């Protein structure tokens, strides 16, 4: 078998959804023993294109070839029979079943059901590719990365030799990402064809052999990874050169809005996730929270918003505009805290599960926030409709119309709806978590701009983000969390990426002033 033979190839593929053209005349392929990164902004049609190979959508025009034969892929089962397996952003697992039982569920109809055989064959796959997976563990006890591993084992079990991974690292820590990449390299060495949908440029450069780029549903071209760098890929993806120049206006008369003292939060399992955190938050500045995922960022914001109980001895004082004395937030209900002007725009890992109702359109999702204002159960639809219109226009949400269920929008568009809704509430303290997670560059800048607008209005903005480059350019001060402890409060204008990175991973002993 020649090394340059295509495992799967698209020829002139077009797909439309009503008036929206998701893919237009795309031709590209992936070879056996190759890792192809599929790069593009949000809504550029990456997932739609791969869903056609995986049998979830059927192309309106064009052909898909598997090997050298034209293939008709009308369902995910057709795809699996051709050796194509896709691992989606949202996993499809049965929580109460063990790993082995989940793998058994995906067996073909002709196979005899024998859990021990399934277990042995699955274990052989895990050993071959060096997966760290306990086959007897129940899914609900697994971490995100273990669930993802299980999804990969599931398609390998079915004999897939063409694997498509949709944003596989979106919810992984850097360490888990490294593990996943070493497994993908093992699969490549075994002659499998791997396609990764992503928009994290540094990952593309470290894992792929070749990069194919989509822009607004059209195929722009491909480039060998060894000839690419971040600037070049960004230019192909966005169509123009992008410098990371986020505006950072100087804070004007910052006013203290929150004073957090000795905040400790324990998880349901009794583990201390936030350990004696103390720092002030000022209106008119953007305060960044840096830390490796899972170091207490989420719990910190949820404790301020009243969604997490704090341990005794903790104090969160809120200085409202024009108030004579600060108000203690610890012990207040989330509703009371929200009404006082403290808003949490949490873009959770599971945007649709926690943030929005997927089956409802944009207008209805706006109403979820404002229904408390009205007096009658018949809700005023004018205000949320106007808000949905504004957000759609200002943030460029791509949706066929305002009543299209948000679960049908691309991840980036879902995000804009979430963030836009919180901004519209005129907060005094605005907390955003992962506001640009999974967003392309242009959309991310829109959101940075919105946060800066809030800052200029005197809002206290707390920004939790993953990208250190952005934190260093956007934030006035940065609180670094390490192992749940505050490990330094740094000046965003003076600190370096190295210092923040070091404090995220090592507890630094501060000299007592």
From TrEMBL:
Its main location: membrane. GO terms for cellular component: plasma membrane. PROSITE patterns: ABC_TRANSPORTER_2. It is found in: Cell membrane. Transmembrane segments: none annotated. Gene3D superfamilies: P-loop containing nucleotide triphosphate hydrolases. InterPro entries: AAA+_ATPase (IPR003593), ABC_carbohydrate_import_ATPase (IPR050107), ABC_transporter-like_ATP-bd (IPR003439), P-loop_NTPase (IPR027417). It is a peripheral membrane protein. Residues 8-241, 258-508 form the ABC transporter domain. SUPFAM superfamilies: P-loop containing nucleoside triphosphate hydrolases (SSF52540). SMART domains: AAA. It holds the Pfam family ABC_tran. Keywords: ATP-binding, Cell membrane, Membrane, Nucleotide-binding, Repeat, Sugar transport, Translocase, Transport. GO terms for molecular function: ATP binding; ATP hydrolysis activity. This is Simple sugar transport system ATP-binding protein.
